[in-house]
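S.,

Sequence below, as promised.
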Amino acid sequence: MKNQSPFILVLVVLFLFGCSTDESNTKNLEIEPIPEGIYFPPIESSDWENISPEQLGWNTAKIEELNDYLASKKTKGFMVLKDGRVVMEAYFNGHNQNANSNWFSAAKSLTATFVGIAQDEGILNIDNKTADYLGANWSQLTPEKQDLITVKDHLRMSTGLTDHVGDFAPWICTLPSCMDFTADAGTRWAYHQGAYMLLQEMISKNAGMSFQAYCKAKVGDRIGMVGNWTSQLGLNIYSSDTRSMARFGLLMQNKGIWDGRTIVSEAYFNEMTHTSQNMNKSYGYLWWLNGKENFLGTTSQDLIQGALIPNAPQDMFAALGAQDQKIYVVPSKGLVVVRSGESAGENQLGMSSFDNELWSKINAVIN
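The prediction came back faster than expected:
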């Protein structure tokens, strides 16, 4: 036994040294803890806190595949936020962080938001009839039929006005001659561009400033979102950089509150992001809703059974625009996902098959 003692001592020393070395290496490989709470980027700064996919336990091996897919689908900007912090930010096809893209119909969701602010401020009441804010002759309907239409009907696409699908010019016309009767208000859902634009006209006529100025003062300036409105194709279209789109999504993730300041009331936010009528369960107030039992598209009256985007989280709601502009908000995961660019292949005004394909690629990373 005496002859074995030095050997045993050496083994003990080596074991202790090895344990010490392994522990040290383990500490060097430790991943930073995930920050708690929602982060809001500064209003007048390009600084933005980041969190790595590794910290979140995401599958980083799939990120390159996601980026390749985005680039191949004519994407310009792509961002993923986790509780306000940037996890992914990438630009493709000649785009960059400072370049603007059109939101197209994703700006409908922005319009719904500042209409809610106008209601909070007492400028209008969405339960009142449209004529209270646009006058008696805003449509060619009889007074009895016209008076059935409320501001809320414009928000939920239930005015009953003829949507002129396939007849492009009057479809985006706001003249009284373009506002004709198909069904009583509240009995038919149809994606009506002209009826939507009248919401902006209501703001301009009743807020003491143009809807563009109102949007900037009440939303943009308060959350650091920088963009502008232009008239294109008969529509008022908003454009901004990708980060401004993400800021708006973050405001929505936090139920209309930005860094402790209420931008739009929680009561209105909840109405806006839940089913607004029974004809299209997947539509709120100009927001698209996932996880519902059915949906109507933008150009058809054919009711489709099932969720809007099956591969996406069920609680997700989204601002969706032509040429595949996307602002996805996922409350259960604390995620905001933004995609801007050209059409990924299927020209639709809102949801397209690209949504489901994209979420299959995103899931491969975040799950």
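The radius of gyration is 25 Å.

Coffee later?
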